[in-house]
Amino acid sequence: MSIDLKYYLSISRFFTPIVMNDIIEKGTSGYLLEVCRNSGMLKHLDSSLLLSQFFDLVYNFLFKHYRNEYIYKNAIANKILLGKHSLNTSQMLTELRVGKCKADVVIVNGSSTVYEIKSEYDSFKRLENQIYAYLEIFDHINVITSESQLAKLRIIIPDNIGIMILTDRNTIRTIRESKSNKQNIILETVFNTFRKDEYLHVIQEYYGGIPDVPNTQIFNKCKQLFCTIPVESAHDLTVKILRQRNTSAFIKDFLDKTPFSLKAYALSIGDDQKKMQRLSSRLDKNIGMVLPLAI
């Protein structure tokens, strides 16, 4: 496709929740239609093209011309989570709250590994603070970037942080292995990543029961108990409970049917079966039904 580069950013937003949610709920997207029309993309599309094929087409275009954060997330989903691990033993979480930061991608299996994305279009301005935040929670910390950013990245980050690059051949190459950080995690920070049912489960499993205190005190009491667990045991309990997010058999079946371009988005849906079912039904429609006013 021949498209003016001024539209690249707009096209990259096709994979954002606001656009995807419109397609799921309404069967179409005004934003998608407007960008396709204004960019001239419509003239390159056949109305019989399936929506799943359309997203693959757009993804391949972006990979070649505008590798934004989603491209990296999707590469991690395809190449690391689904390529090296198994959904039976591993879980991928996106945008996990870590203090004042949000971790781009976290994979939990026998350990906890965070992948901070710094694409060709990202600066390293916040990277130091992000790394310090991640060191309080994760066993392994990696920064994944482009070949063009590699030299600059080497200078900035400590030796215990792993470095990876997304290559032009759509592979992820490890430049430097990360070192274990498990002994340095801060349990108070780890505890703050839990949902209520998760920290109750962790306390129940380790201590054999839930503290008998008023509901207004349960959070602080559980945090106090969690922070007295030996660090390695607390980390392993954390990995175990986070691995249980989004583990339904339905999501595994959904991922098998999802095009490679949408694996990261599919994983971000979580256990919302209704949303998965609607998206699956939309992906089998042709693009002429999604953009009816345009084709």
What does this structure look like?
- The chain has 295 residues and is α/β, with parallel strands linked by helices.
- The chain has 3 domains: 5-66 and 270-290, no CATH class; 88-182, Trna Endonuclease, Chain: A, domain 1; 186-242, no CATH class.
- It contains 15 helices and 6 strands.
- It has a 6-stranded mixed beta sheet, with helices on both faces.
Q: How many structural domains are formed by the residues?
A: 3
Residue stretches low in confidence (pLDDT < 50, at least 5 long) are none
Give the overall shape, derived from the CA principal axes.
globular
> For the report, how would you describe the main beta sheet?
6 strands, mixed
Total count of strands: 6
β-strand amount: 5-15%
Can you tag this structure with a few keywords?
295 residues; alpha/beta; Trna Endonuclease, Chain: A, domain 1; 3 domains
Outline of the structure:
This protein is an alpha/beta fold and 295 residues long. Helix content is 47%, strand content 13%.
Layout of strands and helices, then pairs:
Layout: H1 8-12, H2 17-26, H3 30-39, H4 51-65, H5 69-84, E1 91-98, E2 101-108, E3 112-118, H6 127-134, E4 140-145, H7 150-156, E5 162-166, E6 172-176, H8 187-191, H9 196-207, H10 218-226, H11 231-242, H12 249-257, H13 263-268, H14 273-283, H15 287-290
Parallel strand pairs: 3-4, 4-5
Antiparallel strand pairs: 1-2, 2-3, 5-6
Helix pairs in contact: 9-10, 9-11, 12-14
